[in-house]
């Protein structure tokens, strides 16, 4: 593939930032990659796998002359990062991010964008429960959606260029209003994570069933929740702090439906249970048909233990 940007700079080089760097390298989408992160240890890890051309502990230095800057840190850190890098952004540059919440980006990043810089927020709908530069891999975005949420007044050429970049990384791109994005991900990602964190927490607090029994018999369904509940605590803390309204809206609906289900179990309404379980099975079928999951047992992940 051919170069889309002369220089790209990433602030944050965890799972997502590292995966972007690796895919950009592999596909030759930028002539120069510069990265910055907060801790020297993370920078050393990034350097150990040669994901960039330049490595910094200062965002201000990394973004110098960059044509594309992507914020790849937890959403809660964006405001402080912007205060540091904003005066150093090149006129004409595209500024984007990969944060899982988009209304918040508009609110905190928007006012700090200098004139002449094009803000095109983004959210690659791809990830794993692992964190850090070593968790990254170049095919992470292949066949996944990337949602871009530019405001209506942003230059179309900048949006098109960033869309072309994500398409070159292997993603399908969709444009969406930031608030609508936040509602969609509240039900498809944020509430499911909250449910997983809660169910694993409840099991951990149980007195009448021992922890060793929970672990031993986890294949009954619990194990699949633990994968989601192993996701990065800081990232997910920030998701719930910054997408509060949409999450509360969807959680309200979820709790109402859960009460209906609770009643069906209590009164032994087998028809209601069977009807719901038949509908939900269809949803999984549609996700597999849409290429967003495989039909292999255990969510398509192999059973090799994670290396220690
Ligand atoms: P990660 O693996 O934990 O990496 C986070 C990176 O951000 C690290 O380089 C970390 O640097 C840096 N960072 C953390 N706190 C910071 C702060 N206060 N100031 C500056 N830098 C800071 O996280 P990730 O999974 O790549 O997630 C990054 C972003 O992608 C998040 O906004 C998340 O919402 C979004 N996202 C994640 C997923 C997913 O499944 N993981 C999917 C889509 C989008 P140090 O290690 O040096 O502190």
On the 0 to 100 scale, the average pLDDT is 94
Radius of gyration: 21 Å
**Mind telling me which CATH architecture of the largest domain this is?**
3-Layer(aba) Sandwich
Q: Please trace the helix and strand order, writing H or E for each element.
A: EHEHEHEHEHEEEHEHHHHHH
Low-confidence stretches: 303-308
Task: Report a brief summary of the structure.
This protein has 308 residues and is an alpha/beta fold. 48% of the residues lie in helices and 12% in strands.
Task: Output the keywords.
single chain; about 300 residues; alpha/beta; Rossmann fold; 6-phosphogluconate dehydrogenase C-terminal fold; 2 domains; six-stranded parallel β-sheet; three-stranded mixed β-sheet; 12 helices; about 50% helix; about 10% strand; disordered C terminus; binds NADP nicotinamide-adenine-dinucleotide phosphate
Describe the secondary structure blueprint for this structure:
Elements: E1 5-11, H1 15-27, E2 30-36, H2 40-48, E3 54-56, H3 59-62, E4 68-71, H4 78-85, E5 94-97, H5 103-108, E6 118-119, E7 122-124, E8 145-148, H6 156-168, E9 172-175, H7 178-205, H8 211-216, H9 222-229, H10 233-242, H11 244-267, H12 270-289
Parallel strand pairs: 1-2, 1-4, 2-3, 4-5, 5-6, 8-9
Antiparallel strand pairs: 7-8
